[in-house]
Every structure is written in C-alpha cells, then in structure tokens.
Design a protein that fits this description.
Helix 4 runs antiparallel to helix 5 and helix 8 runs antiparallel to helix 9. The chain has a five-stranded mixed beta sheet with strand order 2-4-5-7-6. The protein has a two-stranded antiparallel sheet with strand order 1-3. About 5% of the residues have low confidence. It folds into three domains: 115 residues, no CATH class; 63 residues; 150 residues, Histidine kinase-like ATPase, C-terminal domain (Heat Shock Protein 90, 2-Layer Sandwich). It is built from nine helices and seven strands, in the order H-H-H-H-H-E-H-H-E-E-H-E-E-H-E-E. The protein starts with a helix and ends with a strand.
Length: 342
C-alpha cells in the first residue's frame, strides 16, 4: 500500500510538470509510475480477494506483477528522470537564448527608432540650421568681396585685409562648429561612454536651438552648482534628452506672455541633477499620467517617442527622467544621473 500511494503521488506530480512545462519525459514518467501503481493495485486486489498470499516470494502471475512493476519503476523510471532533467536544461537554455535574442532585437529596434527620431528632429530644425549657417557664410562672402574690391582698386590696406581675413577665419570656424554639431547629433551612436560635463552640454544643446529660441523670444536662466557636474555616459544620447526637453519647453510656451526656461544643475552626493523649468501652462490633468509613454503625443506632427526614448536613455545611464508640474506654474523636468567617479 505504501509503494502504491508513493507511485500514484509521483505519477500525479509528473503529470502536473508535463502539463505546466510541456515536458515529454515528465509525461513518460507519469505513465511509468502509473503502470507501476496499476500492477501493485492488481497484486493487492488478488491478496484482498484471496487469490494469493501477501508473500514476497510469490509465484506465477504475482511474481510477474512484482518484478515487472519493479523493473518499470527502477529502470525505465530512471531513464525518464534523467531525460526529464536533460529536457529541462535544454528547454531552459532555449528560453534563455530566445530572451537574449528578443533583448538584442529590442535594443536594435530601439536604436533605430531613436535614430529616426533624431533625424526627424533634425528635419524639423533644418530651417533653424539653414538660418544659422547663412549668417557666417554671408559674412564670409562680404569679407571676401571687400578683399577683392581692395585688390581690384589697387588700394591695399594691409591692416584692413588682415582684419577681413581674420573675420573670414572666425566665420569659417563658426560654420565648422555648427556642422560638427549637426553631424554628431544625427550619426548613430556606438554607446561609447566618457566623462561628460553637463554644464557644457546644456549650453551646447541650447546653441542647436538658437534660431527657435530667438524666434520665440525665449529667455534662458542658468543656475549651476559650483562643484563639477560630470557624469559617465554617451554624450550624444544625453544631448538628445536635453534637446527633447528644450524643444518641448519652447513649444509649451507658444502664446505665453512670459517665455523663460530656467536651467539648474546641482551636485547631490553621488548624483548630478538637472532641472528644466518652463513658464508655460504646465501639464493638463488628463495627459500628465501618460506623458513619456511610447507613441503618446498631443502634437499633430509628433511621433510620441521623444520623451519615451529620453526616459529609456536615462534608464540606460542608471538615471531617471521625471516630468511634473512646478508649484509656481509651468512644467518641471528632472534628469537625475550618477556622478562620474573622480
């Protein structure tokens, strides 16, 4: 009776494992212990009805039942147990491999979406870049025209020509810097981490939006901690976060009487905290819980992935990005990143 109950219990557990995990060897094990329990049950019934004695040294059919149930459980059951563990290990390895492939595919698609968002942003800013480029190029043309006029009139003034050449050099350098900003922003990142000075980064990103800032008459206020605000990360990806935050702040203040963006950087223990506060109307109650979710946007031309990508980038840098309404009005964005170890 003890062996019968043990066999039934093992068969029950094996059947549950087979149903829950889809393991063929668990089903085989359930069949083997079920058959062993059946043979023992027949043996017990023969004893109960007086066809045989409860003797270990049984003869005939009773001997067959005992031997066959023992062989079934000890030999075939052992093979099934080994197969069960091997099958579980293989299945676990397959699941791990599938999960790794999914993560790699998700990361690849996420990078493609981020790249598309950067290019879409660049397209939206193309007029601004064209305006910024036209200024130094126009200055270069004017200076070169003045030099040519001086040479044609044989009225050489070495100092004036020297000043004009220096102006051309400054304008050319300004053009190169702007082109480098555009190229570095649009190219795919390779995830190379370096020490990034957040004080310089927030100013550099502001320069990318110089035309929009001037056109919308937006004023920037800066409040930086005296200590160094260095973080370890990908400069291009971090620039994308700040660029998205600035663009959203500028768009949120369209039509406002006061258009001011306050940017503060603080070093708090081992963290660098960036706050960006605009003077817009803030977030509506109906949408504030959905801001930052993938493909949620209130803009007709938006994709709804800018802030979502920014949050993902912040997570990749062991940081966080939070958007709330400020106490004194407007939206408040907080980017919290671990400080670089120095």
């Amino acid at each position: 009776m003890f062996y019968l109950l043990a066999f039934i219990y093992i068969a029950h557990l094996s059947a549950r494992i087979s149903m829950e995990h889809g393991l063929k060897n668990a089903r085989t094990l359930a069949v083997i212990y079920g058959a062993g329990a059946l043979f023992l049950c027949i043996r017990i019934l023969r004893i109960v009805f007086g066809y045989t004695e409860p003797d270990a040294a049984a003869q005939g059919i009773d001997s067959f039942l005992l031997v066959f149930s023992g062989v079934m459980v000890s030999v075939l059951g052992s093979f099934a147990f080994v197969g069960l563990f091997v099958e579980r290990a293989v299945k676990r390895e397959v699941l791990v491999t599938e999960e790794r492939v999914r993560q790699e595919e998700s990361a690849r698609l996420g990078e493609q979406i981020a790249q598309l968002e950067r290019q879409r942003t660049l397209g939206a800013m193309s007029y601004s870049f064209a305006h910024e480029l036209s200024q130094p190029l126009t200055a270069i043309l004017m200076d070169t025209h003045a030099i040519k006029s001086s040479l044609a009139a044989n009225q050489l003034n070495v100092n004036e020509i020297k000043e004009s050449i220096e102006d051309v050099e400054r304008s050319a350098n300004r053009t190169v810097q702007l082109v480098d900003r555009i190229r570095s922003f649009v190219r795919p990142t390779q995830g190379d981490y370096e020490d990034v000075d957040m004080k310089a980064l927030v100013h550099d990103v502001q320069h990318l939006l110089a035309h929009d800032i001037h056109a919308q008459n937006v004023q920037f206020e800066w409040d930086f901690d005296d200590s160094a605000c260095l973080v370890r990360g990908d400069k291009i990806q971090l620039s994308q976060i700040v660029l998205n935050v600035y663009r959203n702040a500028i768009q949120a203040m369209v039509g406002a009487d006061v258009r001011k963006i306050s940017v503060s950087l603080d070093r708090e223990d081992q963290r660098v905290v960036l706050h960006v506060h605009d003077s817009g109307s803030g977030l509506d109650d109906a949408v504030k819980d959905h801001v930052g979710q993938p493909f949620f946007t209130t803009k007709r031309e938006g994709l709804g992935v800018g802030l979502s990508i920014s949050k993902t980038i912040a997570d990749m840098h062991s940081g966080s990005l939070a958007i709330t309404n400020a106490v004194d009005g407007g939206a408040l964005v907080e980017l919290n990143l671990p400080a670089a170890n120095r």
